[in-house]
Every structure is written in structure tokens, then in C-alpha cells.
Amino acid sequence: MANAVADFPADSVVTRADQDGFGTYSDSTFATVGSAGFTLGQFKEELRASRPDGPTLDALLGAMNRYLAEATITIAARDLEDTDEDFARIMREYADGILLFSISEDSVWTVAQTDTTGLEAYFQDRQASYQFPERRRVIAYSSRVDSVLTRVGEFLDGGVSPRGIADRLAADSMSVRIDTVFVSEPSDTAYDRALDLEVGDRTEALTNRSTRTILVLDGIEAPRGKTLEEARAEVLTDYQDHLEADWVARLRERYDARTYPVVLADAFAEEKAAMPETATE
User: Fold this and answer.
1) What are the CB-based long-range contacts (under 8 Å, 24+) for 50-56?
2) Cβ atoms within 10 A of the Cβ of 156, count?
3) Cα(40)–Cα(31) distance, rounded to whole angstroms?
4) Contact assessment for residue 13 and residue 59, using Cβ atoms and an 8 Å cutoff
5) For residue 141, what are the CA distances in angstroms to 176, 192, 248?
6) DSSP alpha helix (H) spans, the chain
7) HSE (side-chain half, CA atoms, 13 Å) at 278
8) Which of 8, 144, 151, 261 is a Cys-bridge partner for 16, taking CB atoms 3.0 to 4.6 Å apart?
């Protein structure tokens, strides 16, 4: 090692090794772990990944130690697979899981995300399944300051529009957040209070998480079908399920795969019977 870096400036040993390598010493073995030897050329290829913590020879040696430590773990794991059946099984399951994830990503998730034509066709064929129920259109005025909501209530009672309220508060250096929320069923939140309002009515200031909020029922929207953009999250999930079911069916047909869930249930019947029952109310 000393000979390989003898001509490198002391303050840039790591830089020179990274840029130029170790020249004629690249094939020199600098360490052996078990039956595996490691050359300076191999180390150069992994130098950046070994995270040198400076430009000097000491930093280079530290990176080399980390490289050897990781290599030793890899070799030990490989050898352990040959001597420990449980560890070998776990590694096979891990490898199979990674492979299944990769195949699923290529065959289902990536396709669903990128196949806009297929997604649109899927939606058109099932458009009736994506519907909005009757919804209450609620305007929510929120602020952390009660005095701001007091002014909002006064403006609302005086018939001032949402835009007008925002402008008047801004003129007085006061701010309020104004959101439009659609409520169709109870959600155990402050917005449930809107279900009891008549169109045009408002609530008092309510506690809504970390803010205070006044709700105004602006109108009631009749049930209608969703557009693709409005239903995109639902359609994407359903399209992924559709692609996965089609993919599994093709695999079963190609490889003549058969499953016997009844046999599996019987195999674990004894263990299931021994499990304590979950109490229900």
C-alpha cells in the first residue's frame, strides 16, 4: 500500500486514488478474507462508497477498513447460507420477496401509473361505479384568533361575501383561512355540525383541531357521477387490482398453478383451535 501511494501528495491521497487509481499496483492483493483476496483495483471501484472522511492516507486507510468490514460481512453471510439451514431459508425468502416485489412493480404498479389510455378505458367501462352522494357544500372560515372569527361572524350576519370578508380583514391586517369542504356523512369532526344547518345558516366558532372555525352551509349538491380526475385515486387503486388479478390469472394458466385453500385450512386447524378467542362487544 505504501508503495502504491508513494508518489501521491500527502494532502490529496484520496483524490489521486479516486481519480487515477493505483497504476501498476491495481492487481496487488492488499487483504485476504478466508479464501477471497482483495486487490487495490477492486477497492478503487468502491472507494467513494466507502465514505473517506478526508484527503489523507489515514482517511484512505479508514475507507479501506470499512470496505473490508462490509466485504467480510458479505462473505460470512454467504458462507452461513451453506452451514445454517434456517439462515439459508430466510435468505431465500428475502430474495423471493425482492423478486416478487420487482415483478409486481413492473407488471402492475408501474403499468397502472403510466398506462393513461388503459386507465381511461377502465374508468369509462365502470363510470357508473364512481359517484358522489348528495353533498353539503360548506365554507369554513378558520383562524387561531377568536377576535378574527368574531369579525367574520359580524360580516357573515351582515351578508358580506367570502371575497369581501377576506378583503376587509386584509385591510385591517387580519387574516383568515377560507376553505370549501364537501360533507356527505358524519366524520366525527367539527364538520359534522354542518349536517344540521339549513342553506345560508352558520355555526358559532367551533374548535377544529388546532384552530377555531365558523362553518357556513353554502348549498346542497345533488348526487352525480365523478369525472376521471375526481375519481383518479379510486380508479387507480381499482385498476391496479384489475391488473394484478389479470396477471395472476395469466401466471396460473401458463404454469398450470393450482392452490388448495381447504387443505391449507385443515393443516392449521389445530393451531387455530388452540388460539384464544377475541372478545367482542
Assistant:
1) 52/14, 54/14, 55/11, 55/12, 55/13, 55/14, 55/15, 56/10, 56/11, 56/13, 56/14
2) 19
3) 9
4) yes
5) 6, 15, 50
6) 13-20, 40-45, 57-83, 85-104, 110-114, 116-125, 146-157, 162-171, 228-255, 261-267, 269-274
7) 2
8) 8
What torsion, rounded to 10 degrees, do the Cα atoms 49, 53, 55, 57 define? -90
Question: Distance between CA 238 and CA 217 in Å, rounded?
Answer: 33
How many Cα atoms within 13 Å fall on the side-chain side of residue 185?
Answer: 2
Sole residue written with cell 403499468: 111
pTM tops 0.90, yes or no: no
Give me the numbers of helices (H) and strands (E) for the chain, helices first please: 11, 8
> Taking the alpha carbons of 108, 114, 115, 119 in that order, is the dihedral positive or negative?
positive
CB atoms within 10 A of CB 232: 15
CA 41 to chain CA centroid, nearest Å: 39
Residue type, 217: L
